[in-house]
Amino acid sequence: MFLGSFSLKEFPYEWYSSLTKPFWTPPNWTFKFIWSLIFFLYSFYITILFFKVSIKIKVLLNYILQLSLNSSWSFIFFKLNYIITGIFIIFILIISLFYFFIKYFNYMKFYSLLILPYLIWLFVALSLNIYIYVYN
User: Fold this and answer.
1) pTM score, two decimals?
2) Which structural domain, as residue segments, surrounds residue 83?
3) pLDDT given for residue 9 in this prediction
């Protein structure tokens, strides 16, 4: 979502602002700040994990999957206006991140908390997308 915003030449303000959104929609200015923080924490988590596990390819592939899905969401939601596909992408992101959280918790312990903001934000994004789909 954060990285995907760079794939858009211009933000589709007209389309997005015309949508009925829930009262819990954060102000637009918060998205860049939140995504920057989330990806800083997530990258830190991945870096630590990468040096702790013996099979590094799984960590790298999950990181690439997260970035790819995250990037594709912005294009699919904002550029193509495929809201239901965006919901599906966020759902896959949540499953992937939750799997990672559980699978590597024994390696990471306290560091696992670094990906909780990402997981929480994905649930917020999912709720926003579902609301937008239902009410538009």
Assistant:
1) 0.87
2) 3-9+32-135
3) 55
